[in-house]
Amino acid sequence: MSDLVTPSDRILVVGASGPIGRAVVRMAQTNGMNATAASRRGPTVLDVSDPLTVARVIATAHPDALVYLVGTAQSTLERDREAAVDRMRTVVEAAVSAGAGRVVLSSSAAVYGDRADTPRGEDTELAGLTPYALEKIALEEALDALGGTLGVSTVSLRIFNVFGEGCRTSLINALREGPKPTLGLTDLFVRDYVHVDDVAEAVVRAVRRSSVTGSINIARGIAVDNLMLAAAAPGAFVPAPGGPASYSVADVSKAGQSLDWRARVDPLDYLRSLRAQ
């Protein structure tokens, strides 16, 4: 599989202040890439709602590839989703005009919803109905259209439940670090947990593989229910009755085949390490 972006080339990571963005920049630099971290909080300050700032930052960074990790507002208003798409379009068009030949978008498992009972593949019908899911779906569709219009290689990474350094909203992190979360003791709440460093590796691989397009699930492909979490981290939570069934697990065969990637960190081992501390 040919590489579009070589290890020494430049990537611009937009939305780099979050845990995934920080991990991607570290991973890219470890792999010899010249990675520029841009976000509202810097180190390269970029507000994607300001076209002039976007143009200035991209002209300076002159990226060969763009990684778009900008968070969503999760608004229920359709016009806000349209605004999010417009902001991404502005950044992508500027990057391509500056010579970028590859765009990687951070999407989410939320696009599938959580009412299935088998792992979701990339060809599965998108059933996510939350504002967050609908915005991610809109961004994916817009990026795919931009790829055709601009003649640029694009891919959307559907990232499942991320844990690890800096992931403050993760249930895994809360179980490991506190404060004690409330955990419904049920095997009906099932998730696919993936470590932030594994996600970063997948992003960097996606940057480099120009022939990989469309969407790719980024996950372990292994179902973990709340009873398994409770057994791995006894005493680390406040027990509660289980709620309704909820299932979100990935079929990760495409990631393995197209990116030669698989997640390494086991969330249960990550929790069990509490006992050794």
Automatic annotation (TrEMBL):
Please give the organism: Microbacterium candidum
Gene3D superfamilies attached to this UniProt entry: NAD(P)-binding Rossmann-like Domain
Q: Where are the transmembrane segments?
A: none
CDD domains per record? SDR_e
Q: Where is the NAD-dependent epimerase/dehydratase domain?
A: 11-219
Protein name per Swiss-Prot or TrEMBL: NAD-dependent epimerase/dehydratase family protein
**Residue ranges the record marks as coiled coil:** none
